[in-house]
Hints:
- The chain is of the alpha+beta class.
- Helix content is 14%, strand content 29%.
- The strands form two sheets. The chain has a six-stranded antiparallel beta sheet with strand order 1-6-2-3-4-5, with no helix packed on it. Strands 8-7-9-10-11 form a five-stranded antiparallel beta sheet, covered by helices on one side.
- Strand 9 (145-150) and strand 10 form a beta hairpin.
- The longest helix has 11 residues, at 129-139.
- The protein is globular.
Amino acid sequence: MREYTRDDCSQTGYDFSLKGKVVVLDRAALPPEHPGQLFFCMGENGANPNPIGRSVFLVSLTNGESCRFMRRDVTGTLKPELLPDEEKLMLSQIRPAGAKDLSENEPQYSGYSFLRDGRYASGVWLCSPQEASDYVEMQKPYQHRVLICDRDDFAVMEVINGKLIYPDEQALAEFRQGQGGGMTMT
């Protein structure tokens, strides 16, 4: 099992946000039986830049379990190119922070993330255009391809290698201004 260090991190310290990023936890902070050091940060006060609080809410990218650690336990944010494929697949299954409860809300979209070789895990339900956008933002630094589909399984947004492919930038800007513009995300 690989040991991740500060050298594998793009940011270390306390002057940046951890929210929405893959972080490396210090091996000493983890239980001996935990299989990996890579986690996705969902937020909490300790995730803020120069935090007042200390707790950070994380999701393990080896087993998918939610947990809480202290900011001091975080070595830093992992360089995106170092995230292994299995952890990318686990990351693709995480709904954005603040996503609506699926037992009380109707999903409008599904989000998929693909590895370079075409492998992917099942899609995740997303309940609003904002959740769809948040899913894309959290996945695009790490995934080869991110696809958002509507309830009829038609593509409404696609990002490859961090770049928006569909719709084009103008249509997306019009959508964000509430003008429609060829992109149907209702």
